[in-house]
# Entry
Amino acid sequence: MPRYFFDTHDGAFHRDEDGTECADLDAVRREAMIFLPEIARWEIPKDGNQRAFTVLVRDESGAIVYTGTLTYAGLTLNNEAT
# Structure
């Protein structure tokens, strides 16, 4: 089964040195869809209200075969009566 590498960028670049075996590009897409929210779950509380998380998936030859981005935008509302 081919190995794919899920590099991430969330303000800093993180290279995946181990990779994950996936049967095909549909499986790569599913892994990215699971992976991005997991990263965001732990990283959003650390750094404000605006954040983008990107995954760049490389195949074994190093070619990027898929990319996905999850964006978080928070807004504090002022509900005080005037």
Remarks:
- The chain has one domain: 3-73.
